[in-house]
Amino acid sequence: MTQQQAFDDALTTRIGQAAMLLHAGDREEARNRFAALWSELGDGGEALHRCTLARYLADAQDDPGDALAWDLRALAAADAGRAGKASPDAAQALRALGPALHLDLAVGYLRLHHPEAARLHLARARGALDALGGDDGHVRRIRTGIDELARRLDRDPGGPLG
Asked: CA–CA distance from 5 to each of 9, 12, 13, 14 (Å)?
């Protein structure tokens, strides 16, 4: 095992541990751990790690504006990884994250009362669905989320999202 593989494995483990805290309801501790990992990883870290961390940091935020900022960082990391030197497997994983990333952004923009930006990212989420392939539970959840948000925008395009 190379030093980079050991770092990647340790980082993945630490991300998973912080994610368990988040899912257990300890948002503040999870947020603190994710932020520490983000600082450790830095701008030069692997795009897939940066994207994953930024998505979790978005989920751990209490303020919708902060969550949106982290979702934008996640998308930027994914875009950079797809365009840059990510391994083929990482690039494929980043492509597969596209629909969920854009759905997260659409939800974030709607929460902040920006329905046009929400529609833009909803369309991008729908357009990126082919990167998912298959029809497992994850794919169905993304498709359902897209459809539900589209109906929500059609019903009340400027209303708040709870």
From this structure: 6, 10, 12, 14
C-beta separation of 81 from 92 below 8 A:
no
Listed in sequence order, the DSSP H helices in the chain are: 3-23, 27-41, 47-59, 64-83, 88-111, 115-127, 137-155
Cβ-contact 122, 149 below 8 angstroms = yes
Contact 118, 109 (CB under 8 A): yes
Angle at 117 between CA 43 and CA 76, to 5 degrees: 15
Tokens of 63: 């303020």
> Cα 24 to the chain's mean position, in Å?
19
| C-alpha dist (Å) from residue 130 to 73, 120, 141, 143, 146 | 23, 17, 14, 11, 14
User: Residue 35 corresponds to which tokens in the numbers above?
Assistant: 């932020």
Contact (Cβ atoms closer than 8 angstroms) between residue 123 and residue 98: no
Per-residue pLDDT tens listing for the chain (162 residues): 566 666 677 888 999 999 999 999 999 999 999 999 999 988 788 899 999 999 999 999 999 999 999 999 999 999 999 888 778 888 888 998 999 999 999 999 999 999 999 999 999 999 999 888 777 888 899 999 999 999 999 887 665 555
